[in-house]
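INFO batch 0412 | record 1 of 1 | parsing
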Amino acid sequence: MDKIGVVGCGLMGAGIAEVSARAGLDVVVAESSAGAADAGRRRLEKSLGRAEAKGKIESASAVLERIHLVTDLDAMADRQIVIEAIIEEESAKIDLFHRLDKIVLDPEAILGSNTSSIPIMKLGAGTTRPSQVIGIHFFNPVPVLKLVELVPSLLTSKETLRRSHAFVETKLNKTAIDCQDRAGFVVNALLIPFVLSAIRMMESGFATAEDIDRGLVLGAAHPQGPLALADLIGLDTTKAVAESLYAEFKEPLYAPPPLLARMVEAGLLGRKAGRGFYTYE
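INFO prediction complete | emitting tokens
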């Protein structure tokens, strides 16, 4: 699989496109508008510029030449694998997979989702090829973090899982782990309740954001505190995953705290918005 399609060029989509292009693959990225495509290109240029300055790649421009940004989803027609990285909204993703099913011509092409919480079965059910639909969940920042969760549904074929492993580990030089198709998969099923506990601790006045994070960094050797991590993930994404976990398991510890809901409503989404639990330049 050398022809890669990515739908969405936000933080995650741009990262997936970057690691694919750095691996020498031909990448087409589809965005919803010219403005969004321009923003995606600037995000890629900035990230690749940093990588070149640090000596991680020889030429940012050479990598960028392998990435083609478009606003027409039909450009996915010749792709061998397409990974969606759009908004974490179930109806939007289901609609996209329905469209991709009609557009992508290769009968053996894999349709992957970078969702962090939505059941893969629901995405595959909207296509005529559910055996080739699989979760391919990267972690932010994609160029840095080595892990990818592979999430087959009950209808995903063993061959699709095998080929996805080969793509992630051989082509992209990342490490893949297998997960069941249940909300949160492995990492978020463990991580999000932990983050929500930190938010509740701050919300109750038990400790400040700074002291909570400092406690976990200095007392438990975490590289980053849970509230700073929530800002990095995005508070909207954190809330979406929490809601998905709660909907599936009905455990109170998965329910988003009121503070998280209010911050999302206010647009305080973390690093990408310039303000979350902390304020950023």
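INFO post-check: Residues 3-178 form a domain with the Rossmann fold fold (CATH 3.40.50.720).
INFO record closed
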